[in-house]
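Subject: sequence -> structure tokens, single chain

Hey, anyone have a minute? Need the predicted structure for the following. Not urgent.
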Amino acid sequence: MTQSDTTSLEAIVLAAGRGVRFGGGKLVAPFNGAPLVASALLTAFLAPVRRVFVAIGPDPAVRKAVETTATRLVASERLVLVSVEHPEEGVGASLRTAVQALPDDATGAFVFLGDMPAIDPATPRRLARALSGPEGVVAPTFLGRRGHPVLFGVAWFPALSALSGDEGARALVESAGARLARIPVEDPGIHLDVDRPEDLARAIEGR
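Reply:
Had a minute. Here:
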């Protein structure tokens, strides 16, 4: 896919989780002077996408953090909030709901996780250049291990729209076979997600 084709890509940020293993309040926990989710949003807004669709649950603090971040980045017009009615169902429900909100003319969508604060903004740009077409899936690798975000061509939207439970899109990526492009990047942030307070401490320390 050429760079000119990326103008119809969208970004999804999954931010509806309750953060049970963290003890609650994970996405609004302080990280580099802002809520944790702000770092994921920054990378999503810097990606070669038209809009950023953020799947959120009922927590008003997360909604406020997302809206405040978009305002600070002068990107409010590119933000689309997608309310997930039953976030307790798992990440599958959040992803399903967000994909169903995408416009009909989208050619692909990145899937970012709201608790991954250290992805290099250059990584999504590399993935976009590697998307081969509607059947393609592109994922970054670091030291041979796959990470996030994952970029899905539009042909995957029906399958993403049918997800349920807490598995997310992992099984779909694993089923892609030759349609999956694995792109090596020098970006350890593709593996750094925050599940527990000690993960956040490591992220703050840059480890």
